[in-house]
Amino acid sequence: MFTEKEKKELEKELSHYDYKRAACIEALKIVQRNRGWVSDDSILDIAEFLEMTPDELDGVATFYNLIFRRQVGSHVILICDSISCWVMRYEDILGYLQERLGIRPGETTADGKFTLLPVPCLGACDGAPAIMVDETLYINVNRALLDDILCACDRRQP
Amino acid sequence: MAKMATIYIDNKPYTVKEGDNLLHACLSLGFDIPYFCWHPAMHSVGACRQCAVKQFKDENDTLGRIVMSCMTPAVEGTRISIDDEEVRAFRKSIIEFLMTNHPHDCPVCDEGGECHLQDMTVMTGHSYRRFRFKKRTYRNQYLGPFVNHEMNRCIQCYRCVRFYRDYAGGRDFGAFASHHHVYFGRHKEGALENEFSGNLVEICPTGVFTDKTFKRHYTRKWDLQTAPSVCVHCGLGCNTIPGERYGLLRRIQNRYNGAVNGYFLCDRGRFGYEFVNAERRIRQPLMKRSSLPVPREEVMQHLSRLIYFGARVIGIGSPRASLEGNFALRSLVGEDHFYTGVSAMDARLLEKIIMVLAKGPARSSSLAEAGAADAVFVLGEDVTNSAPLLALSLRQSVRLKPMEIDKRLHIPEWDDSAVRNAAQQEKRPLFVATPYRTKLEEVSTQAYHAAPDDLARLGFAVAHELDNRSPAVKGLPKKLHTLAEGIARVLSQAEHPLIVSGTGCGSEAVLESAANVAWALCRKNRSADLCFAVPECNSLGLALMGEGSVSDAFKAVHDGAVDTAIILENDLYLRAETEDVNSFFDKVRNVIVIDHSVTGTASKADVVVPAAAFAEGDGTLVNNEGRAQRFYQVFVPDRDIEESWRWLRDIMAASGRPGLKHWTGLDDIVQAMSNSIKAFKNIAESNVPAGYRITGQHIPRQPHRYSGRTAMHANISVVEPKPPEDKDSPLSFSMEGFSGQPPAGLIPRFWAPGWNSVQALNKFQSEVGGPLTGGDPGQRLFEPVQESTVSYFDEVPGAFSPRENELLLVRVYHIFGSEELSAMSPCIAESAPGPYIGLKPEDAELFQVSEGRDVRISINDKEYSLPVKYLPELPSGVGVLPAGLRGLEGLELPAWGRINNQAKG
Q1: Domain C-terminal end among A39, A63, A87
Q2: Domain that includes residue B14, residue range
Q3: Domain range holding A56?
Q4: Residue at B801 is within a domain
Q5: A108 and A146: one domain?
Q6: Angle at alpha carbon of residue B434, lines to B428 and B439, rounded to 5°
Q7: Are B94 and B155 contained in the same domain?
Q8: Do A145 and A82 share a structural domain?
Q9: How many domains does chain B have?
Q10: Residues A54, B177: C-beta atoms closer than 8 Å
Q11: pLDDT digits (tens, 9 = 90+) for B174-231
């Protein structure tokens, strides 16, 4: 079931649309913002709330890579592997991240702190290589910057 | 007439309908262009990129550009090339790309040999696989007893979701994820809920969705013996192609008829066939005095003694038997001793329907016409469950308004996703008035739930609004008056309004009010159509033949004038209350049953004679539209099994009764029928006589690739037996004969060179999606009387008033379970609900019963114990009982029931 906070956010979103189902992407984002990911149970709850079937809603949820249908770590690191970042040797920072975290792209650390995901573009080609941690974009990333970012994450518990 | 345009295909001019998409136009002209996502009933989305052609600006343009033919309209002067080298390479590369993830499992795939993907791959010339990497794999889902799922074969054409969701209105199936791992299935494993899920088998261009019942006794398409047939599981008469091998009926496929079922069948029609193979089949003559089957000669001798000249014999016919069977029985016993074998109530309702259709000004609509109506009023019928494909048609009728909008927006109506996008939630009007909530309400403009009498009152009120010569309804509540006004206004503004009703709620008043509405519209110069759902495959045909009901037969027996009763393909326990049937059997000295399956009635008989099931014989059925349709024998059954009319003919001959009939083939008995019954005067008009040959050849039931002909009987004799003779039709039980296209009514299967899948159908239509070449088969038996002077029905029932401690019980239909024959098939039986009583929760509270608990209820002095199911939208004072389910069969509803509120447990 939804928390009061979620309910309020959902209701607000609904007010923008003629049809409830039109709010489905926003509803998924709201739940993900509050819970980190969208579980099967959340799908059932949101579907009922929007008068959709779980099949209809899950079709939308699974379409978007950044709607997480599996549990992710407290911090999600998106690393761009698109052309500009590739030209700027993003593999270096990816290798370093893998080494430090002990995981490969698509995996979550054993302590549940970090999930590492590749993305095709972060829209920051001028600052390649780029990564995004949670909602923050980092450009011109190098090892030192990565150390700082991971340290900051360690301190800033969700 | 549509505006025509000249287009140039590879520099040759052709005339096509202006505005059609090029794929449609080219296929209709007979060209081969490969395609996947396009479907003639679901139109274009331009998703698969397979149907590419090259378009040129004018005759000087040598470069051209590649376009998708399904998304490009044909306009005057359009120049395209199908054969251009570059575009051929393009099409080949698309297939190669689709095939990178397609498994190499054709030999073990059920689709193999009738696979559109195979056909298209061969057509494009992609014959060498360069891809040497891993293919993506999926987990498959359990989708219920009908459809098998094998996702690895998917080529992402999206046809399945487009059919299931957009066309059939299903909401428990979808497309998941994106790019190379798109998945078509359910959110969670489980049986597909939509009544039309079986069409996925034919919609899917490859083997993702296949027929699960077929899988259990699988045979390649080229090894199936097939013939044109008609579905026997409801009154709509959808055309089917049953397939047989080694004496076993293997599957049912859709047989396109542009006026009836089009491209689709319901799951009851597609999967209900297994009763033909069931243990319950009667395969040899049986006699009560012998525990073993009796030889035919002995039975004949015995029967001739029972039916000697002078014996008092009555005949009880059946709405699930062919016209010929019923007519033979009627001829044997005489018109005065023939009873139609329907319940007293059904007899009254059917007589009314015939009167309305034959005497009134409103036309009976075909299924195809129903789908094209622009305003629909459903009065008292749960069509999704009683006449499923009609519900599918009505779902399309609500969609048509968008097309009008789109004409304004200049979106061609074949551009499916654009059309849906422009239409959003806008729909054409559909009013549904039924006793309980029906599934069609999902797409209705407005729904109304009431007791049958109140439904009739609404109908009468609408008719009165349209024409004040139709009687007024006294004491109509204001709210209902407003509703009636609204419906009347919408109907009178429509160009092709349609009124749908039927025998479902067992009320003559409902039928009368529906007739009044349609007639009032006709008198306002609207071409209003009527569509009545009837219970069984030959209900209307039988009603045209005679009048007496089962109750009349019982009365004759009670009056003591009967020695022997012959019961034709009928289980009387479904037609009347058990006690009445039992006392009938007690009174009749000899009971002869001719049937294909063991029923309660057959087990009471002194003599049982094995009749042919639909796939084992020929005959004629009259559907709800009044369309007489022939079904043809698919295979030769066990030795003793014969069509009922042949048994009856032989019994007649053996008994030495007068009027011995020399019917050798079906044509003879049809001719006799058409001579002696006025309603059937035209029935033989569109039939192809048994002597018909094409270049001196039969039409073969077996494909030319049929294998094992010389080996399949080798365990008995190495000498190949002579194929059985068919006296009834131009079809032969052989692979030899004319290999081209036969007349439309005789198409045994859809196949064309290079087109092994069902999509070969394109080659059999005069225009893709249009009628079959030479016209859709079937003969309408009645047309409206244009200047009809028939007067309005004027008996408006009083308003329904609930009774204290009692409930008015009406029938609720279930697509799976409410029909007798399909319920004998395991997969349908598995999908049927158990018996229950549906109550409004408030009423249940009043009777102190609750959901899930058993409640005792007495109806006509008989007590039933049934679990309660809450149906919140029932009108108060009304309860529902499922029709035809075990323990409730034979109960005539509506009837009042008294609840014994001392609930058990």
Answers
A1: A63
A2: 4-99
A3: 4-63
A4: no
A5: yes
A6: 60
A7: no
A8: yes
A9: 4
A10: no
A11: 999 998 899 999 999 999 999 999 999 999 999 999 999 999 999 999 999 999 999 9
Residues of chain B contacting A53 with CB distance shorter than 8 Å: 171-172, 187
Domain count within chain A: 2
CATH of the domain at A17: 1.10.10
CB proximity B178 to A under 8 Å: yes
Query: Does residue B721 come out as left (phi exceeding 0), alpha (psi in the -120 to 50 range) or beta?
Result: beta
A106 close contact with B: CB closer than 8 A:
no
Residues B167 and B131 in one domain: yes
Q: Is the pLDDT assigned to residue B406 strictly greater than 80?
A: no
Last residue of a domain, one of B534, B555, B589: B534
* CB-based contact, A65 to chain B, within 8 Å: yes
- Which of B138, B162, B176 best probes binding to A when mutated, by most A CB atoms within 10 angstroms? B176
Provide the CA A105 distance to its chain's centre, in angstroms.
13
Q: What is the pTM of this model?
A: 0.95
User: For B251-271, what is the mean pLDDT?
Assistant: 98
Count of Cβ atoms closer than 10 Å to residue B294 Cβ: 19
Torsion of CA A28, A85, A81, A25, to 10 degrees: 10
Claim to verify: residue B89 and residue B111 sit in the same structural domain: no
Is A59 at the interface with chain B, CB within 8 A? yes
Residues A35 and A81 in one domain: no
Nearest by CB: A55 against B177, B187, B425: B187
Domain assignment of residue B15, yes or no: yes
Residue A38 counted as domain residue = yes
Place B902 in a pLDDT band, splitting at 50, 70 and 90: low
Q: In this structure, are A90 and A142 located in the same domain?
A: yes
**Nearest chain A Cα distance for residue B175, angstroms:** 6
Q: Is the CB of B178 less than 8 angstroms away from the CB of A53?
A: no
Q: Residue B599: is its pLDDT beyond 70?
A: yes
Tell me whether residue B108 is exposed, middle or buried, using C-beta atoms within 10 angstroms of its C-beta: 0 to 12, 13 to 18, 19 or more.
exposed
Cβ neighbours of residue B456 closer than 8 Å, sequence gap 6 or more: B380, B507, B509, B510, B512, B513, B796, B797
B797-849 confidence digits (pLDDT tens):
999 999 988 999 999 999 999 999 999 999 999 999 999 999 999 999 988 88
pLDDT at B660: 67
Residue B524 identity (one-letter amino acid): K
* Interface pTM, i.e. ipTM: 0.92
Mean pLDDT of chain B: 94
- CB of B181 less than 8 A from some CB of A: no
Q: Is the pLDDT at B676 greater than 90, yes or no?
A: yes
> What is the nearest CA distance from A100 to chain B, expressed in angstroms?
31
Any chain A CB within 8 A of the CB of B288? no
Strands B52-56 and B79-81: antiparallel
Q: What is the pLDDT of residue B639?
A: 84
Whether B34 contacts B19, CB under 8 Å: no
Residue B903 has pLDDT above 70, yes or no: no
Report if residue A139 sits inside a domain: yes
